[in-house]
Structures are given as structure tokens and as C-alpha cells.
Amino acid sequence: MSFSKRMGITPSTKVIQSESMDIDLRNSLWNAIIAFYWNLYRSPPSRNIGRGDFVRGSNLHQLAVSIYMYHYKQPIDTIDEYWEYFLQRIRVTFFKSQWHAVYDFVEFIVQNGPDINKNKFLEACNEIFERENSAYRFVAEQITPITSPEEINEIEQAILNADRYTGVRTHLQTALGLLTDRQNPDYRNSIKESISAVESLAKKLVGDDKATLGQALKILETKHNLHGSLKSAFLTLYGYTSDASGIRHALLDNTAAPTKADARFMLICCSAFINFAIDSVED
User: Fold this and answer.
1) Who contacts 236 (Cβ-Cβ below 8 Å, separation ≥6)?
2) What is the pTM of this model?
3) 148-283 has CATH 2.60.40 classification
């Protein structure tokens, strides 16, 4: 802790940054992008005497094109000829953008930039988010409002474990995307996707694509020692999503819409069950 914080001159902790971004957080994210992406820039083979820091032909040319084409949605023939000027333009936009647009850009770089430093960048960003008291963390290459390391690990592990079960992985990634959409979150469909991931896994594990979740859980209980209490808990959660006023049916006038907390709980809970089920079968 610095002298100023020890003496109480400046706050020892920040207010959680949920729908805002202070300059420390913004600066730190830009520095991370420089360190792990912009510093990768290598100019193309020299074409003539003079400056050679061209965008076209460089190792980051495709990333520059992707930023303009898919993120900014600007004509790619307006990309600056020289890397220095291209980077200046990106920097101005980054520091003028609203807080959520900065997160959008950081997420885009992760998903479209070179893979060489991706894991280090993700780790650095999560350290920055924690240090600057951001309400967000990277989970499976998406910035999410889930802050607990245990929760992050549970979801990432479930997506990793589901590599052999394409449907499960797709449902989980879709649930995460719907939950973390900063402009149009869809908590109802996120919950649907989370429970669908459990359904998909259960059917695969018992080898019957027509089995209901209840039937699949019964087989898991019998053949793989699924504890009866866990089985009952998931049947209850499934009932919540399936009853007349639940997630799988249209909202009634007097029915409250699902909240972020509901969707977050369901994603974490279903991820934990998927990890448990896969581990149980493979043991």
C-alpha cells in the first residue's frame, strides 16, 4: 500500500467499476494491448528507400483489416498507410470510447489477434480487472460480470471438459454470450442454454438422444453413482425452467423476467454439474 493510501489521503480501495471505467483501468488495458499485441508489429520487407512501417504486408495487416471491417465497420480503404498513424487513430478512438466500447475492443482483439500472446494477455487483463476493482473478468475469451475465481474456473473447466461433446460446449458458450452481452443481454435464453447443456451431456453419457433429462439422470444415478440428492436438485431446477410460468414458456403478464443473478446462478450451477458428471463417468 502506498504512503497516500496508508495515511488515508487517497482511498485504499476503489468502488467496484460496473458501468464505468476510470483512467487507471483504461490506461492499464491500453498498456496491455501495447505489450502483448502492438509490440508484435513487424514491418513488411523493404520496398524502397525511406520509411517502411507500412500496415499493408506487415504481420498485423490482417488484424488491422479485421478491426476496420468487423469492429469499426469502416471502409478498409481508409486504413492509414503507415503503422504509426494507424495506431494513433486506434488510440484516439480507444480513449474517447464509452466504457463498454473499450471492453468490446479488448474482447475483439483477443478473439481476432495473433494467438502467440493470447493466454498471457488474458491473464494480464484479469490481473488488471482485479487490481482496478472492475466488476468484470475474462472467461473463455469473453468479458463477463462473474468475479469469483472459483466461478470463473468452474465455467472454463466445463467448456474445456466439453470438448468431446460439441453440443454441450455450444450450449455453454451460447449461455455465456447471452449473459455477458453488454448491450442486449438475454437472461431468459441464457438460462435455457445452460440447462440445455446439462440435457445434452446427460443424453450423450447414457447413449440415448431421445432420453429426457429425468431418464438420463436416473441412469447416471444407477450406473455412475450419481447421488440421489444431486439428482433431485437438478430435477427441481429443470422443473423451474419448464413449468407453466418458467423459462421455457412465454412470459405471463404477472411473471417477473429472469434477472442477471438468475442467469449467472444457472450457468455456474450447470457448469459445476457438467464437471461433476464428466469426472464421475471418467473415474
Assistant:
1) none
2) 0.71
3) no
